[in-house]
Amino acid sequence: MLPEFDVEIGYDYELVDLRTDLTAEKVTAGFVEHHDYRCLGLPSWEEAAECLVREAEILERATRSSAPDGIEEILTAVEEEDGVEYAELMSVFHWNDVGVAGVSLALSAARTATFYSCASGLDNHHADHPMVGVVPDPQRAALIAELAEGAGCGIGQHWGRWYLYAKSVTALHALGQSILEHREAFDALPQPAWVEGLEEELERVNDY
Length: 208
Fold this sequence. Notes:
This protein is α+β, with helices and mostly antiparallel strands. It contains nine helices and five strands, in the order βαααααββαββααα.
């Protein structure tokens, strides 16, 4: 089964108060205090699609599992049987939690700056319910807000950044799918300023 959490879904945000000061350097190095910040770079829609497909497979299996946390049961079994296969699988998710990896990658492909993700669960998680942190520009935010409400995901805003959250990872996965389906709308929007120079900045930091 998949855990479901007791959280009230709401929409508390102001588009005019979103952060607009992000640069390639800030997105690369980290612009928030969250644990284990790591920039996802500029993934393609194809990468996001592959991640969502693999994630859907695991979520479907987890739903049929009798374990309290089906995702954890599946990943533990894969790791114990074949460490290499496990590493290859997790690389598709960019080593993010299964259940929020797909929406994180879709948001990055849509050219928003993600900074946090946690699937929550019964053990070893930071958040007490599934959550993804992101800073979109106002135009992308307006579109994401519409899609989030349709997927049953809430939005909270703190210090100019958004936290997308849900009762279950299935809702955040559905949001990732919806973002992917609307990729043409995102691609039609002007690129955020921080996109320019991001790949070069990531290469510089990785080579340091």
